Amino acid sequence: MHSLRAIPLNLPRRPTVSRSYAPLRQITFLGGDQVLAEILRWEDDKIELRLRGGQTTGVSREAIAAVGVSRGEVELLYESFELDVAAGIATPEVVVKPTIDAKWLDPARAAGGDRSLNLAGISKPLVYAFPALPEASRVQFWFRIEEDADGLKTRPTELRVDFNFQGGNDSSRWRLNATANGASISFPGGSNEPVTSQAVTLKKGWHCLTAAFLDDHAICVVDDALLMLVGRSPGRLHSIRLNGTANVWIDELQVSQFTPRSDESAVRPSTQDDCVALLDGDQWFGRVKQVSSTKVTLVGPAGARLAAWPQLDSLALRQSDRATFKREPQSGLWAAIELQANVDRPRQGSDRIVAAIAQINRDFIIVAHPWLGEIAIGWSDVARIEPLFYGTAITVDARRLHLGDAIREDFQRPTPDGTEWSGEFEIASSLPADAEVWLSLDATDLEPAGPGTPPASPFLKELRSGRLRTDLTINDHAAGDLNRWIRSRAAPAHPDRLRCRLPANLLRVGRNSFRISQVPLKETGMGYDNCELSNIRIEIVEPSLQFKSSLPFERRLPGAEFRPAASTVPVAIPVR
């Protein structure tokens, strides 16, 4: 490893809620970084995302490995109250939906999209029923309440939402009462539950209510304010009942069911087709042409096929058969950044990215990510920063390839891609005199031969005699083998990040080439080390670089509604 030893920065646990307009999707990039984001637009070569915090960014389709529902969840319902999908998309056997009349849809006000549901004039409450009775569930919707224009108080302007449960204790019904002044939760049937609750003051505009009903507790939040916390489960969600007076609007209603969490993707990357995996185990192959908040359209040999998101587990995008599109090198403090987990999605886990921190101030860190570009992250969203190095990183090739000569069903790419992998990268300017150059990559099941490798390791003798190696060549000059940098094999589900020190004089300004090639076990050319390699980067570490942590943040990023800081406070992230 290089000479710098980073000290991780752990920030206090802050409860955050994953507010969104449309359902969030788990986006997995080449290289393994993951974020929850809304998909705003899907094109043949570009995908537009809305990230947490509201910032929008365009990402090349080739940079995305997979798209899925939030891990540990199954979508039950999404109502956007738009004309084209006014009835929403739901699985009939798990949701019974009311009929929505188009005359109730208001084109003048919307939280997301173009329309919302105006509850004025609806004679009886709208009821969404869930006959399957999900054991644990999540509900989210946006609401807006305005006082009567003439100021008359003959009929209070109020939203009432009843959450009805079965199998709970005394609190079989919760009622959300919201007016233009505030919101609160009550228990019309009485309750002996340990409850923490408070009234929340509301400002003019749209507000987001998020409720999570879990196995051992339940929580309800309006915007960022805790409305109610119950110390045990209220039971299984049976129905949601919406009722309101004039000047009350509802938008973007989402309901999902929590399930046992799985970290394993149901689909594997291919160089031939996109793959859509359904919850019933079916897989469709072809080209994903459209992805919206409600459905996915795939075109294959059998023509166009459409699947609603409640039917889907995930989809994997075709892995390009050429080197990943070029990205500009990013410079700064490279770090692994883990975001705060969402209290309304306890089985999702945390978003995690590796990026270069370009600027820091009191409210935000601005990072340059190889695929997301330049984005701002609020400190309240950050859980952990693990500094890696100061300097510049060049993404050489982020694809995942299987090197070797045998089929491995436990690999993400079971069929081998060959025994050699090559590519090119650019160095823009001369390296500093004290620069350290490293090649880093993710490796799975690579045979170890480094210091500390157990003497009983099966092929240690052969590796140290020059057989079964995976060799690295830079600009047609030998740069050693990968095996000598590790001491144990990484399981397919948990790749190791491998870092190899390179002689700086092997690199040159302009175009450079690299080649990874395998040496067989036997002189007859039989028996190669089957391994998976991915996410190759050249890291130029500059030990003398002094990171400026007090740069002002005085600009808005495209698509973001972040406020600039009034003053700048240096943030110390120690590295020694």
What labels describe this entry?
576 residues, mainly beta, Jelly Rolls, 2 domains, 10-stranded antiparallel β-sheet, 1 helix, 1% helix, elongated, disordered C terminus
* Shape descriptor: elongated
Q: Indicate how many domains the architecture comprises.
A: 2
Count of distinct strands: 40
Any idea of the CATH topology of the largest domain?
Answer: Jelly Rolls
CATH architecture of the largest domain: Sandwich
Termini distance? 14 Å
Quickly count the helices: 1
Question: Would you give an account of this structure?
Answer:
With 576 residues, the chain is mostly beta strands. The protein folds into 2 domains: 1-13 and 326-567, Jelly Rolls (Sandwich), CATH 2.60.120; 74-258, Sandwich (Jelly Rolls). Mean pLDDT is 83; it is low at 546-576. The protein is built from 1 helix and 40 strands. The longest helix is centred in the last third of the chain and has 5 residues, at 460-464. 1% of the residues lie in helices and 45% in strands. The strands form 5 sheets. Strands 1, 28, 29, 30, 31, 32, 33, 35, 38 and 40 form a 10-stranded antiparallel sheet that branches. Strands 5-4-3-2-6-27-23-24-25-26 form a 10-stranded antiparallel sheet, with no helix packed on it.
